[in-house]
Design goal:
single chain, binds nicotinamide-adenine-dinucleotide, Rossmann fold, seven-stranded parallel beta sheet
Length: 256
């Protein structure tokens, strides 16, 4: 593991990749603080794993985020690594998704990143070290039909994180913007319960551990963009050089 620090903070640690990262890091002897809105999920992540400490925090509440980060630092010490995982993913056609749902999704997926960044990053920069790991998505690089609201939040995450990286390029902090393709976690249920695009069944589901391994691999190489598998790397290139071809394929697969 390309990580010699001790204290980790993970938002969205009550499920999926946040949970897996928390357990892996605790097993490696790190002290891991996890934030989530789901108290039961937090408790389940921590059960049987010493070294996992949990806080119920709604990432959209800036004051609560700052207060909880201060508590983590008081209790455990300065944060060496941050994973920004908290997100929701309801799908639908843009004219059919409720505006309220789309605003909430932006407040969690993007607004939450703004809060946790401003609460955690200044101290990393002051110490001249730390790992800042932001979860965007292939959906934020390569939009498809029925995922437009979610894609917009993840494009915001990607642009925010990319700019943050360049504004702090000589700070000593390592930045990673992770762009997983469809990965096997409970998040997918939210998409399936709303409007699931056929395009998302075109590739195979990635294992969450593969995403976490790719983060370690690319942090070690000093790579900012993390595309966890070959399909995601090719997808990013296709988006840049042949977007028309991709949209043609999307219309064909979705049938409209
Ligand atoms: N699973 C995928 O296919 C996939 C693909 C690309 C990117 N991602 C991204 O990876 C990250 C982790 O996703 P996952 O698949 O592990 O999802 P998940 O649903 O398993 O976990 C997300 C967690 O965020 C929490 N959360 C939601 N709203 C919150 C709020 N207001 N405050 C605090 N916590 C809140 C949820 O309770 C949940 O525990 C997300 O940012 C997601 O967008 C996932």
């Amino acid at each position: 593991m390309a990580f010699e620090g001790k204290i980790v903070l993970i938002t969205g640690g009550g499920s999926g990749m946040g949970r897996l990262a928390a357990r892996n890091l605790a097993a490696a002897g790190k002290e891991v603080a996890i934030f989530d809105i789901n108290a039961a999920g937090l408790a389940e992540t921590a059960t049987g794993h010493t070294g996992i400490h949990h806080w119920v925090v709604d990432i959209t509440d800036g004051e609560a985020v700052h207060a909880a980060v201060r508590e983590v630092e008081d209790k455990l010490g300065p944060i060496d690594r941050l994973y920004n995982c908290a997100a929701i993913m309801p799908f639908g056609k843009l004219l059919e998704q409720k505006a309220e749902v789309m605003h909430t999704m932006m407040a969690i997926n993007y607004g939450g990143l703004v809060h946790i960044t401003q609460a955690v990053l200044p101290n990393m920069i002051a110490r001249g070290k730390g790992d800042f790991i932001s979860f965007a998505s292939m959906a934020g690089i390569l939009p498809t039909m029925l995922t437009g609201g979610y894609s917009a939040t993840k494009a915001a995450v990607a642009f925010f994180t990319e700019t943050l990286y360049h504004e702090n390029i000589n700070s000593g902090v390592r930045f990673a913007c992770v762009c997983p393709p469809t990965t096997n976690t409970p998040l997918l249920d939210q998409g399936r319960e709303t409007a699931w695009p056929k395009m998302l069944d075109q590739g195979s589901l990635l294992d969450p551990q593969d995403v976490l391994n790719a983060i370690e691999r690319d942090l070690e190489k000093g790579k900012f963009w993390v595309f966890p598998n070959r399909d995601s790397s090719i997808g990013a290139l296709m988006r840049r050089w042949a977007p028309g071809l991709i949209w043609k394929q999307i219309h064909k697969v979705e049938g409209f």
